[in-house]
Every structure is written in structure tokens, then in C-alpha cells.
Design goal:
InterPro entries: EmrE-like (IPR037185), Small_drug/metabolite_transptr (IPR000390), Small_multidrug_res (IPR045324). The protein is mainly alpha-helical and 106 residues long. Helix content is 80%, strand content 0%. The chain is built from 4 helices and no strands. Helix 1 runs antiparallel to helix 2, helix 1 packs parallel to helix 3 and helix 3 packs antiparallel against helix 4. The radius of gyration is 15 Å and the shape is flat. The termini are close together.
């Protein structure tokens, strides 16, 4: 269950990062409120996850999920352009997240 909390914490990282961009510097109230909600949800879910998982695993996994998710949202929603080499590093980040899960023993 802790890993599920962690995955959703990472998803809410993507939510708040995306809605923060859409808030245009916190000038659009609905997106500003969604940003705050996403931040709170992400932190609360991380707090649940680290009840059972080591912080040294949980925090980087949550952040990594958020980073990879934000990259994907940026490319799809905001038409961000990434070089092929950058995609190699994104894949390496994803492999690292999966590797942490597989080798953690939790």
C-alpha cells in the first residue's frame, strides 16, 4: 500500500506542477487552487508512504515520478521540445525509479 501512496504522490507532483504553469504566476484562481490542492495531496501521500518506506527511497521516487510526468505533460500539453539525448536521460531516470523499486526489498 505504501508504494501505491507513493505513486499517487508522484502523480500529484505532476498535477501541481502543471496547474502552477496554467495559473500564469498564480493569477488564475482555479489553477492556483488546484496547485495548492496538488501540493497538499502530494505531501500527505508522501507522509503516508514514509510511515513504512525509508525516506531515502520514497522521496527520490516521488520526485522522479513527478519529474518524468512533468516532462511528458510538458511535451504533450505545452509542446516542449526535447532533444533525442534528453530523451535518453529521461529514460535513464525512469529506469532508475524502477530499479529503486525492484531492488529496495519493500
Amino acid at each position: 500500500m505504501s508504494w501505491l501512496f507513493l505513486v499517487f504522490a508522484g502523480i500529484f507532483e505532476v498535477v501541481w506542477a502543471t496547474t502552477m504553469k496554467l495559473s500564469h504566476g498564480f493569477s488564475k484562481l482555479p489553477f492556483t487552487l488546484a496547485t495548492i490542492f496538488g501540493m497538499i495531496a502530494s505531501f500527505l501521500l508522501l507522509a503516508q508512504a514514509i510511515k513504512k518506506l525509508p525516506m531515502s527511497l520514497a522521496y527520490p521516487v516521488r520526485t522522479g515520478i513527478g519529474a518524468v510526468g512533468a516532462i511528458i505533460v510538458g511535451v504533450i500539453l505545452f509542446k516542449d521540445q526535447l532533444s533525442p539525448l534528453t530523451w535518453v536521460f529521461v529514460i535513464m531516470l525512469l529506469v532508475g525509479i524502477i530499479g529503486i523499486k525492484v531492488t529496495s526489498g519493500h
